[in-house]
Structure formats: C-alpha cells, structure tokens
C-alpha cells in the first residue's frame, strides 16, 4: 500500500491538465478527434523513386476539434514517433465534400526533412491533404461519421511524369479520423 500512496502523492503534485492546455495554447473541449497519419510509399504514387524505397513508415497523429463557427482547432504540432518528436504546423482547415462523401483536411507544415533519423520517409514541406470518407452531417453533431476505411494523404509537387513540368497530386500515405475522449494536450 505504501507504493500506491507514493504514486497518488506524485500524481497529485503534477500540474492539472487545464494548466497544460493553457500552456499549449488550446482550451478543453467536450470531444476531439484524432487524425492518424501514416506516411510511406503507396501503390501508384508519383513520389520520387527514392522516397520511401525502404518500405519504412512514418506514423504520426494530429488532434483536431471542429468549432461552432465552421473553423478547425488543432494541437500546435503533429506528434511523430509516438510523441517523441513533434513537427509544428502553420495552420489547418477542413472541408466536407458532400457529393463525394469525403472530409478533407489541409495542413501546412515546414516539412520533416531536418529530421535525419526518420530514414527515407519524410513529410514534404508545404500543404498536404488528408482525405477521409465521411458519411455526412455536421462533425460536431455527428462526431463518429468517418469511414472505417483508410483515407489517403496527398501532397502537391512539381512533376514531370507526363513529359511536361506541372503541379500534380502525389499519394504520400494513408490516414484515419477517430473520435477520442482526451484533451488536446495529450
């Protein structure tokens, strides 16, 4: 019993989650969603042939909250490698495509190329789009309407695969959106 009492005392001495949330620049919410991002080589991608050649994957998460004014609040950074690293984001937005039954997340990053220990998979600099199937409705009123199937992550890059230099969408991984019951700081 002494170990349990010591553990409870240590837990009580830690700052409360709302204090941590204020430091992180977020506020507590009634529910949040977690966007699971899994970057790596996919079939039929036009990414550079050396990108993701090893077959390794870069798994990361981003917590999001749908606001009443139609905006999107996110955690300040993408958590890489189970939270051991983080990648700051410049901004994020979402859009529901009702005709295609998709929810699109546009996320701006400075890229993860400076993380040399991640191998041959990196998050490209600029904007990437995570597209997840969506059954429909307002995400605040129907929080669990995302598809159980994985969506795709695309990046917009200059390419030459058609013989012309042009901007093209390239598949950079897969994603899933899930409802969670924890605060944005975790």
Automatic annotation (TrEMBL):
It comes from the Eukaryota. This is Uncharacterized protein.
């Amino acid at each position: 019993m002494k170990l349990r009492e010591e553990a409870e005392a240590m837990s009580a001495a830690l700052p409360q989650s709302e204090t941590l949330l204020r430091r992180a620049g977020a506020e507590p919410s009634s529910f949040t969603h977690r966007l699971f991002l899994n970057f790596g080589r996919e079939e039929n991608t036009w990414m550079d042939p050396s990108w993701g050649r090893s077959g390794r994957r870069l798994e990361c998460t981003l917590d999001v909250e749908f606001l009443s004014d139609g905006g999107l609040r996110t955690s300040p950074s993408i958590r890489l490698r189970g939270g051991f690293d983080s990648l700051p984001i410049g901004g994020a937005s979402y859009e529901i495509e009702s005709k295609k039954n998709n929810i699109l997340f546009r996320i701006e990053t400075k890229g993860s190329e400076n993380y040399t220990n991640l191998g041959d998979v990196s998050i490209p600099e600029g904007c990437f789009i995570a597209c997840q199937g969506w059954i429909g409705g307002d995400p605040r009123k129907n929080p669990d309407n995302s598809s159980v199937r994985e969506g795709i992550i695309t990046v917009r890059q200059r390419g030459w695969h058609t013989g012309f230099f042009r901007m093209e969408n390239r598949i950079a991984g897969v994603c899933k959106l899930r409802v969670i019951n924890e605060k944005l700081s975790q």
